[in-house]
C-alpha cells in the first residue's frame, strides 16, 4: 500500500494538517505526518532520512518547506514517489533579498527576540481576514513556539541552502497537485503557476481569500483537493 506522508512547513508540526489528516485516514488511506524536518540539517539530508525511514512507494503532500522537501525526495528517488501535492511552495532557490531577510531573522532568534519576529510575520503568513482571527493567530504562534528558536534557525538555514529545482520539473511523471493561496505573500501564486506549467499533467488550485497558511485558512477546500488527489492512487483500504 502506498503511504501518504504529510510534510509540515518551517517550524510547523502535525497540527498544520489537523483537518486533512483525519479526512484522508477516514477515506481509507494510510497516512502519517513526518517530523524529519526537525532531525536533519539540510533538505537533502531530510529527504535521505525520510526515504530510509519509509520503505515502498510514497505519496508526498508538503506545505511550504514541506513542498520543497517533497521535491527533494522526488529528485533523489523519483521511482519511490507515487504522487506529489505541493502546497504554498516554490521550486526556486532563495533570492539574495530573501537570504538577507532570513539571515536578519536568524540574528533576532539568536538574540532571544523570537516572539517579536513571529508577531511581525503574521501579516505575511495569513490573508488579512484571517490575520484578524485571534484564535487562528494564537494557534499559529503556539505551533511555532513549540518548535522553538533552535529549530527556526536550523530550518531557515536548510531552506536558505536549497537548490533551484525548476529545470527538473518537466521530468516529474507522477500525479501532481499544486495549490496556493491567491494572496500568498511568501510563495506567491506565480511560483505555483510556474510549477504547474512545468510538470506534465499537473493540477493547479488557487484558493481565494487565502494567504500562506492554506491548510488552516481554507481547510475544507484543501481537504477536498487532497482527497481527490489521493483518490488517484492505487491505495487499498486501511
Task: Report strand %.
Answer: 5-15%
Helix content: 40-55%
Distance between the termini: 9 Å
Query: DSSP helix count?
Result: 10
Output mean pLDDT: 96
Structural class of the secondary structure composition? Answer: alpha/beta
Low-confidence parts lasting 5 or more residues at pLDDT below 50?
A: none
Instruction: Count every beta strand, where a strand is a DSSP E run of 2 or more residues.
Output: 6
Largest sheet: 6 strands, parallel
| Spatial ordering of strands, largest sheet | 2-1-3-4-5-6
- Tell me, what's the shape? globular
Spell the H/E element sequence. EHEHEHEHHHHEHEHH
Radius of gyration: 17 Å
Question: Characteristics of this structure?
Answer:
about 240 residues; six-stranded parallel β-sheet; alpha/beta; single chain; globular
Describe the structure.
The chain has a 6-stranded parallel β-sheet with strand order 2-1-3-4-5-6, sandwiched between helices. The longest helix has 27 residues, at 134-160. The radius of gyration is 17 Å and the shape is globular. The chain is α/β, with parallel strands linked by helices and 238 residues long. The mean pLDDT is 96. The chain is built from 10 helices and 6 strands. It has helices at 20-26, 43-53, 65-76, 96-110, 114-125, 128-131, 134-160, 189-198, 214-217, 219-230; strands at 3-7, 30-33, 58-63, 81-87, 176-181, 203-207.
